[in-house]
Amino acid sequence: MRRLPIFFLLDVSESMVGQPLNAVEEGMKRIITSLRQDPSALETAYISIIAFAGKAKVLSPLTDIISFYPPKLPIGGGTSLGLGLITLMREIDEKVVLKSSTQQRDWKPLVFLITDGKPTDNTNEAVREWKENYASKATMVAITLGDYANVSILKQLTPHVLLYEGSNDDDFKRFFDWISASVQSHSQAIEQNRGDKTGIDLQKMGTILKEISDEKSSNDTPNIDNNTVVLTGRCQGNKQPYLIKYEKAITELVLQKYVTGRNYKLNGCYPITDEYFEWSTKESNHEINISQLDGFPSCPYCANTSALASCGFCKKNMCISGESVAICPWCNKKNNFIFTDEDFSIQRGKG
Ligand SMILES: [Zn+2]
Ligand SMILES: [Zn+2]
To answer: Which ligand has its closest atom nearest to the C-alpha of 333?
Structure first.
């Protein structure tokens, strides 16, 4: 039986923290469950998951559906799509048998790229390599989660670029069911000896996915994702890290116009582990003025009412209970926190 290799290239950048990341994690389980019930997928489909944030790694090497166990997804700072593509291409080189006189060849691989933001690394080399050597050997479907910003790069990789327009958990479930259905119809088609010349048979998309045929213009601020602001902090009690996520107010996205004032609304404050730093690009020098932020979270670990206090020495964020003396969990220096009416800037991640 010839194998049908299926790669999921997943964006696990910090802007995915919270609901989107949970939904993708649940979605992968859902895909596996549904493919296990399909005889042709069961025989042919092999799954691999590659994740990218500031760094990119293979989370699950190519594995048959029965043995596949969906991994817990990490989270990191940065959206290094270029590194993600390179990791994917090396994995295809190593694991997929495209030409061989002694071994059975694999079917043309399917790649589902799911991303929510604009790449923060230089993608030129990787995109060029993909176009020259891989675009004809693999079928890629790129899905962007409610964001036009990166469409022009995705359009260079594949003609199949889709915009996900769902808004809740049920929409996400339907989206992953759509991926399963597309994989199933594809594996059935190649089994019925129709081969894989025709490319992927994308199932009827419904209202949550929209095919993008034209290249939307994008506002080109390199190396930073401006739809979300993500701040890293640590609890002064247990010293564990957390992410505070703000999202650009929807009305502003629609109007596409920059207004001064509080542009970013609090989405939530999420506990993370130190693994985050292994998946992140080095220090981010980007800052945001707190006057742009609407809503301030409490610490997700302890009873402290503010998770957004800036250390006077290392400038990193920590939780505090109010005006107090507190040791910074990042640099161990003693701060004397007092409230101020003045606006100040704090460090933010790349997104
Ligand atoms: Zn705390
Ligand atoms: Zn400090």
So the answer is: 2
Alpha carbon distance 39, 35 (integer Å): 8
- Burial class, 129, CB count within 10 angstroms (exposed 0-12 / middle 13-18 / buried 19+): middle
CA of 74 to the centre of ligand 1 (A): 22
199 CA from centroid of ligand 1 (Å): 51
Q: Which residue in the block uniquely carries the two structure tokens 């895909």? A: 31
Query: Can you give the pTM of this predicted structure?
Result: 0.86
In a domain, 76, yes or no: yes
Q: And the tokens for 7?
A: 């790669």
Strand 110-115 relative to strand 139-145: parallel, antiparallel, unpaired? parallel
Q: How far is the CA of 238 from the centre of ligand 1 (A)?
A: 7
pLDDT at 134 over 90: yes
Which range is least confidently modeled, 47-51, 252-256, 335-339, 344-348? 252-256
pLDDT higher than threshold 80 for residue 216: no
CA distance 103 to 78: 39
Do the domain assignments include residue 9?
yes
pLDDT confidence bin for 220, thresholds 50/70/90: very low
> Helix-strand-coil percent breakdown of the chain, rounded to 5?
30, 25, 45
| pLDDT band, residue 148 (cuts 50/70/90) | low
93 domain-assigned: yes
- Going from the Cα of 234 to the center of ligand 2, the distance in angstroms, rounded, reads 10
Last residue of a domain, one of 141, 176, 211: 211
Residue 88: pLDDT band with limits 50, 70, 90 = very high
Distance 134 CA to ligand 2 centre (A): 46
- Single out the residue in 179, 211, 243 at which a domain terminates: 211
The CA–CA distances, whole Å, from 310 to 48, 174, 264, 340, 348 equal 41, 41, 18, 12, 11
Name the helix (H) or strand (E) containing 46.
Answer: strand 45-52
8 Å CB contact between 307 and 317: yes
Residue 297 CA to ligand 1 center (angstroms) comes to 11
Classify residue 116: in a domain, yes or no: yes
| CATH label of the domain that carries residue 73 | 3.40.50.410
Query: Domain range spanning residue 144?
Result: 4-211
